[in-house]
Design brief:
Layout: E1 2-7, H1 13-23, E2 27-32, H2 36-42, H3 54-61, E3 66-69, H4 72-78, E4 81-84, H5 104-116, E5 121-125, H6 133-141, E6 150-154, H7 164-169, E7 174-178, H8 182-195, E8 204-208, H9 209-240, H10 244-252, H11 273-286, H12 290-317, E9 326-330, H13 345-355, E10 359-363, H14 368-374, E11 382-384, H15 388-392, E12 397-400, H16 405-408, H17 412-418, E13 424-427, H18 434-440, E14 443-445
Parallel strand pairs: 1-2, 1-4, 2-3, 4-5, 5-6, 7-8, 9-10, 9-12, 10-11, 12-13, 13-14
Helix pairs in contact: 1-3, 4-5, 9-11, 9-12, 11-12, 12-13
The chain binds uridine-5'-diphosphate-xylopyranose and adenosine-5'-diphosphate.
The site of uridine-5'-diphosphate-xylopyranose has 19 residues, from α9.
Length: about 450
């Protein structure tokens, strides 16, 4: 029975290890973390992250071949293969602040591996990392004085939140990078053998280490670029009476372009896109490619423009002032089906509205707890509502920030009746039927489409 350890029980490590345990009953999988509260939650009925389907998988395996623990030393000693999925946020200090990845948690993990290991191991990078991190990892691990050998493998995770379990069960591809040496290839095979339990072999791609590390950054950069491209055109649509949905539906029919990931929105959020592009920008600068750095940086600038533009549109529509007006924020998560709010465009929209002295009432089916933390230091009048009807009562405007399906089921006639008039609806996700909302009486402002107003 092989023993797998995962260091870091977050959004990546948690679901990934649950699925590995589920698909590979012949392996024992242990997930460790320095955060005791998080581990306790993984061991309880109330898992620390919300992800459709995750509860069932964890319940099937926990206590059988899936364990959560804070005993990192024991985990390291016993493991044959160690996955590392600790956080690698953007640096907030020193050289490269605001761009480069902060690798302190990764380095600490490497140091605890050499402190506790007493046999050779395969160490798998799961966190997103700058290209060539594996080299640094290898140097730290091989600084051990006991002659222990470590093979570093890069196996980036491509799961998207909200669909993580399905993405893990049926991945488009699994990418495994290793050194082009005999031992490197053997280690690749060992990791590939795990996934081969449920992933068809032709979907398991093996590359050299550096290609694998770079592919993760590039995949996220290309995805984010699509969203920024569409959002840039949404601004033009609002000026020209073209309709972004019609434009993307028609353009996406070209199989070279493809229909997915062309939804105009308030902007992309999530823990990966911004961080990974910044990382790419930093790397390009570091390697003396300022033009390439600038090219990718524009994707982030466009994203920031989109949320500023959204608030500017709100102000312009609401007679240039939102001071002392109640605004209901529907949705705070960075996308539907997750409670995660990292880099959510809702954070920036709320802060801008608070600066304009609006009173905010925030509702989200899963993300209220995180919303509270995100806005902890924000000054102004904020309330958090479990009940969407409470959130909109007496509001001058609604701003839809997240495309939760449950919002479509709300009784908008009842909502309209309980609001101040004229009632404004700013749909940052093009979630609601603009014609139907207009008929009810709302002045409707979608993204990338002409506003429908009663003025
Ligand atoms: C992303 C990648 O998809 C995943 O492969 C990688 O492993 C991690 O980063 P995630 O951040 O979970 O996953 O969500 P994703 O579905 O990619 O959405 C990111 C953001 O883009 C969200 O805020 C989403 O609302 C926005 N988006 C996405 C759009 O605005 N329009 C689209 O068409 C698609
Ligand atoms: P991701 O979205 O990449 O999974 P998270 O922040 O959700 O990121 O999870 C990373 C986890 O890694 C956190 O729970 C954090 O406590 C954990 N972690 C960070 N450093 C260490 C370490 N040295 N040892 C064990 N766990 C760590």
């Amino acid at each position: 029975m092989k023993k797998i350890l995962c260091i870091g029980a977050g959004y990546v490590g948690g679901p990934t290890m649950a699925v590995i345990a589920d698909r590979c009953p012949q392996y024992t999988v242990t997930v460790v973390d320095i955060n005791e509260k998080r581990i306790a939650a993984w061991n309880s009925d109330d898992l620390p992250i919300y992800e459709p389907g995750l509860d069932e998988v964890v319940k099937r395996c926990r206590g059988k071949n899936l364990f959560y623990s804070t005993d990192i030393a024991k985990g390291i000693k016993e493991a044959d293969i160690i996955f590392v999925s600790v956080n690698t946020p953007t640096k907030t200090f020193g050289t490269g602040a605001g761009r480069a990845a902060d690798l302190q948690y990764l380095e600490k993990t490497a140091r605890s591996i050499i402190e506790h290991a007493d046999s050779d191991k395969i160490v798998v990078e799961k966190s997103t990392l700058p290209v060539r991190t594996a080299q640094a990892m290898s140097r730290i691990l091989h600084s051990n004085t006991r002659g222990l050998k470590f093979q570093i493998i890069s196996n980036p995770e491509f799961l998207a939140e909200g669909t993580a379990i399905n993405d893990l069960m049926n991945p488009d591809r699994v990418l495994i990078g290793g050194l082009e040496t005999e031992d490197g290839q053997k280690a690749i095979e060992e990791v590939a053998a795990i996934y081969a339990n449920w992933v068809p072999r032709e979907r398991i791609i093996t590359t050299n280490l550096w290609s694998s590390e770079l592919t993760k950054l590039v995949s996220n950069a290309l995805l984010a670029q699509r969203v920024s491209s569409v959002n840039s055109i949404s601004a033009l649509c609002e000026k020209t009476e073209a309709n972004i949905n019609e434009v993307t539906a028609a353009a996406g029919k070209d199989t070279r372009i493809g229909a997915k990931f062309l939804k105009a929105s308030i902007g992309f959020g999530g823990s990966c896109f911004k961080k990974d592009i910044l990382n790419l920008v930093y790397l390009c600068g570091y390697y003396g490619l300022p033009e390439v750095a600038e090219y990718w940086e524009q994707v982030i600038k466009m994203n920031e423009f989109q949320s500023r533009r959204f608030v500017a549109n709100m102000l312009a529509a609401m007679f240039n002032t939102v001071a002392d007006k109640k605004i209901a924020i529907l949705g705070f998560a960075f996308k539907a089906d997750t409670g995660d709010t990292r880099e959510s465009p809702a954070i920036s929209v709320c802060r801008q509205l608070l600066e304009e002295r609006a009173r905010l009432c925030i509702h989200d089916p899963k993300a209220l707890e995180n919303a509270r933390l995100d806005l902890e230091d924000a000054e102004g009048d904020i309330t958090y509502c479990e009940d969407p009807y409470e959130a909109v009562k007496g509001a001058h405007a609604i701003a839809v920030m997240t495309e939760w399906n449950s919002f479509k089921e709300l009784d908008f006639k009842r909502i309209y009746d309980s609001m101040e008039k004229p009632a404004f609806l700013f749909d940052g996700r093009n979630l609601l039927d603009a014609d139907a909302m207009y008929e009810i009486g709302f002045n409707v402002y979608p993204i990338g489409k002409k506003a429908k107003t009663h003025f």
